[in-house]
């Protein structure tokens, strides 16, 4: 009995599948245009290209770092916080006029019933992330950006109170 029909069907399905940067079954995954690292971005970063500055383990954003949206106008909103296997865990999104704060749930940070400890933990994770970004820029020989993100870390620490 020939396996050719089954093989032909399999190849037809494989070729018909869309090629994308998304995680299988996860339409909300994005890919850093420079490194190819995959992640989910909070909804407030949804428009424009998003870049990850941090560790990329097994092709996924991991640890403390920054997701920064960039569009035609330049740098946009940024998430500072912890990522696990490409998914935000906790942190802060700097948006015009303030912050979105909290744990990552249903595509966004925070909830209406966020308690004091979650807010404090979020700003602490964000400050650690900003310091990790500053260290990456310092190691890359970019002291200006390193100083900028060290300043971001200090500003985030002030929000803990």
TrEMBL record:
Keywords: Signal
Keyword Signal part of the UniProt annotation: yes
Signal peptide extent: 1-21
Top-level lineage group: Bacteria
Protein name from the UniProt record: Uncharacterized protein
């Amino acid at each position: 009995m020939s396996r050719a029909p089954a093989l032909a069907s399999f190849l037809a399905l494989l070729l018909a599948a869309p090629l994308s940067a998304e995680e299988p079954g996860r339409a909300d995954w994005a890919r850093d245009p420079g490194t190819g690292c995959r992640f989910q971005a909070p909804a407030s970063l949804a428009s424009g290209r998003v870049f990850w500055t941090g560790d990329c383990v097994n092709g996924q954003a991991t640890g403390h770092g920054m997701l920064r949206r960039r569009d035609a106008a330049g740098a946009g909103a940024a998430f500072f916080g912890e990522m696990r296997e490409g998914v935000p865990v906790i942190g802060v999104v700097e948006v015009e006029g303030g912050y979105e704060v909290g744990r990552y749930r249903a595509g966004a940070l925070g909830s209406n019933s966020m308690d004091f400890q979650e807010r404090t933990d979020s700003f602490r994770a964000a400050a650690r992330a900003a310091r990790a970004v500053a260290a990456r820029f310092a190691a890359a020989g970019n002291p200006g950006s390193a100083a900028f993100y060290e300043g971001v870390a200090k500003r985030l620490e002030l929000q803990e109170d």
